[in-house]
Amino acid sequence: MDLNASPEPEEDEGTFEPNFSEDSAPEEKHSHHVDHVETAVDIMRREREERKQRLKRERPDDRPTHQAYRPMNDHVFQAKHQRTYDKSRLPPGWLDCPPYGQEIGCMVPSKVPLGEAFNDCIVPGKRYSFRQVIHQQRVVGRKLGLVIDLTNTTRYYSVNDWKKEGIKYVKINCKGRGSVPENEAVSQFLARQKNSKKYILVHCTHGHNRTGYMIIHYLMRTVLMSVAQAIKIFADARPPGIYKPDYIDALYAFYHERKPDLVTCPSTPEWKRSSEFDLNGEALPDEDDDGVPVDPVDENHDTEGVMTNDDVLGDSIPQDQQDAFRQFCYQALKLSAGVRGNHQFPGSHPVSLDRENLQLLRQRYYYATWKADGTRYMMLITMDGCYLIDRNFVFRRVQMRFPWKLSGEGLAEKVHHFTLLDGEMIIDTVPDTRKQERRYLIYDLMAINHVSVVERPFYERWKMLEKEVVEPRNYERARICQKQHSLYRYDLEPFRVRRKDFWLLSTVTKLLKEFIPRLSHDADGLVFQGWDDPYVPRTHEGLLKWKYASMNSVDFLFEMAEDRQLLFLHERGKKKLMEGNRIAFGDDVDPASYSGKIVECAWNKEEEVWVCMRVRTDKATPNDFNTYRKVLRSIKDNITEEVLLDEIHEIIRLPMYADRIKQDSKGHHHSSTRPKVRMGFVQNISPWQFLPT
């Protein structure tokens, strides 16, 4: 047997034999060939196939995906949980859904336009692509400048189609099915409506639920109206409007309105209802989720946990909106916004009381209040919402209502717009029930309805705060409580609001001995406010704070470098290493877990070490070096409670104080006869009983 010989072919193999021999003439080679002439049908089929191949190359994400093989006994799980859909087919109900509605302001609600990849599924008369959109809107005199896409997929059309026509495109992913758009998505949507000179096409899959939800938010924040009115406006422009009950319920809950009993959700449109079930009678989900399952809702989730000062309140807002609000704050506070200043918190900061600045109490007229151990916030009130401003100069929106003008009955006709406040958020604990309640204590007013008041004396701003901000709100709230079927529900707001009280220096003893121990929230000292002072942004040398000796503290940046524990402050905007300063943590604390965080520390005189009290989640930078020096001086001077009270006892006997205290006391007694809405929890004690008789 020749091992080098070629193997014999198997029975089912055959050797290739050409149809012509090598010596055949050329004309003999072509004698069996018949020329093929393309018919019109062949040309159409070939062009269609070429178009398909071209579209596949241009849009690779539209190619069908292939599922991995699953065992047959997993067919139930596959049908219910891993179901995928052919991306080339139409969204259920899309074909017979009306293409668009009437304009609402500058917005046109629409169903999603479908690209050419879907043409094989749509008869020519039913097609609705970007070309049809532009043409149909031009016919009715609307020139589009922006398209806002609320679907949760990118498979319906190519974004470049809009851009080639000079139309801007914004994508805001919103889940369909059982989810309403998130609050951050609503903020992004509203930020795109500012100063639009051209029309905006807003679409989800069918242009009803998510589109309606967004447009109704726009109406609620630009025109003073009820949720029911806004829902009707959208329904009239895009019949039948929102037809999912959870979307309507979410709108009433968001704006803290009571849903009227007569309000009913429209039934599902016929064009949607007819396609909502498959051949097995199972409901079909909206198709714009790309097969991504919706997160399950935990019905047992407890949303009312223990409140802390570290809780993050409100919803984030787009950066361009935040930048605009920052500019307003700087203008209202008469500050020039430099490059670095744009990100620096502009609120007024007190300085620690020492023996040197203690003499200011003898030179100027001061009032006193307690220093609450809460979280510092400025607040910007606009007609489209309230914005808490933290120490990092970051804005977060909360749904609150601040009426401006008092009305006879019901809701006020006007609300505050660009009113700027300063205050602190505290957590009250009701003594009897131990129930927690968040409260915002307002202690200053810097702007009211676009008008800056920072140059007015404090006593004027304090009175304006009560008359223009607090009283209208309390009055409206009291009127609403008397009605059983009022629309707005103040009880659903995230926190309550009150003006913080200030008292004569002659009441400081009772403040320390009686008032502070009975507070329903923590307090760590006193604040002395100049009665005639303007509002001074950032460090205010005339605004004094006194803390109990054990609570004098400095905020450091703590870092671990190998085995070294380092403390940093800020000096001229840069980190400054504090050599020689030591820090101590609790026995059960791993210092490495605090690395990179801002820690508030109190000074232990005996051990000569800084003791970590807590992490400051509300701050992104440590104290300035000058602040550190002032705190050290305050600690060194050791102005105890006894020393402070002795000094104040002498100060109030000065003629400057004695005459004015007598005058102010009469004014307070006269004003205290007016009916007041009691807010806050202080057991068995009234601030006015501190005044001398």
UniProtKB/TrEMBL annotation:
Keyword presence, Transferase: yes
Any Pfam family the entry gives: mRNA_cap_enzyme
Compartments in which it is found: Nucleus
Main location: nucleus
Active-site positions on this chain: C204 (phosphocysteine intermediate), K371 (n6-gmp-lysine intermediate)
SUPFAM superfamilies: (Phosphotyrosine protein) phosphatases II, DNA ligase/mRNA capping enzyme, catalytic domain, Nucleic acid-binding proteins
Main enzyme class: transferase
Keywords annotated in UniProt: GTP-binding, Hydrolase, mRNA capping, mRNA processing, Nucleotide-binding, Nucleotidyltransferase, Nucleus, Protein phosphatase, Transferase
The organism's place on the tree of life at top rank: Eukaryota
Renumbered residue ranges of the record's region Disordered: 1-69
One MF term in the entry's GO annotations: mRNA 5'-triphosphate monophosphatase activity
GO biological process: 7-methylguanosine mRNA capping; DNA recombination; DNA repair
Domain ATP-dependent DNA ligase family profile: 440-575
Name under which the protein is recorded: mRNA guanylyltransferase
Cell membrane found in the keyword field: no
GO annotations of cellular component type: nucleus
Chain ranges of the Tyrosine-protein phosphatase domain: 119-261
Amino-acid positions noted as binding GTP in the UniProt annotation, renumbered to this chain: R376, R391, D422, G423, E424, K545, W546, K547, R614, V615, R616, T617, D618, K619
UniProt domain Tyrosine specific protein phosphatases: residue ranges: 184-249
Reactions catalysed, as given in the entry: a 5'-end diphospho-ribonucleoside in mRNA + GTP + H(+) = a 5'-end (5'-triphosphoguanosine)-ribonucleoside in mRNA + diphosphate
Biased composition (Basic and acidic residues): 26-65
EC number: 2.7.7.50
